[in-house]
Amino acid sequence: KVNRGYACAFQYLINQSVSDVFVGLNDDIKIKSNLVIEALAHPFIEDKKIGLVGGNVVSLLPKTFIGRSVYTSYLTFLPIRLKWRNGESQLTCDGKILALRKSFYKSLKLLTSPTATVDIFLYFENLRQRKKYAFAKDAIVHYRLPETIGDYRNQQERTLTGIAI
After folding, report:
1. Residue 100 region by backbone torsions, left for phi larger than 0, else alpha for psi between -120 and 50, else beta
2. What is the pLDDT of residues 139-158, one digit of tens each?
3. Rounded to an integer, what distance in angstroms lies between the CA atom of residue 13 and that of residue 36?
4. Residue 5: how many CB atoms within 10 A of its CB?
5. Which residues pair with 71 in a beta bridge?
6. Distance (Å, whole) CA 4 – CA 115
7. Residue 76 DSSP class
8. What is the CA 163 to chain-centroid distance, rounded?
9. 97, 111, 120, 128: most buried, per Cβ within 10 A?
10. What pTM was estimated for this model as a whole?
């Protein structure tokens, strides 16, 4: 009944989980193929030191002028995100699609205040625990960038609030 934010919801879900790998998918994405979960989970099989895997978040084509303006900055940032450290950096760790190994997610104590930066917290907490991060380039999900000034402003306010916390 009370919106306590993404961090609280994420903590609740991982507290309920008993699986070896927890997969978190946001509600505002479109999954590209039936093999997304397999591609996301595969790095855990390859390397037991991996605690966190990020999927490949790809923007849908915009429909409005504001959307196209935001999309221009997305296109500028995209090659940097994919090439820096071969995609295995905080730039590809996006809360829209993440997988966490049980030994990592069971150790988490997330903030209960609303925050838009849970994904970045997870990335750095994973490293702090001396676990590896992997980017699953083939685990593609699509999402829509903000299409109105109001949507863009709301997104920026959530991000800045998360950074301030």
Report:
1. beta
2. 999 999 999 999 888 878 77
3. 20
4. 21
5. none
6. 9
7. H
8. 15
9. 97
10. 0.88
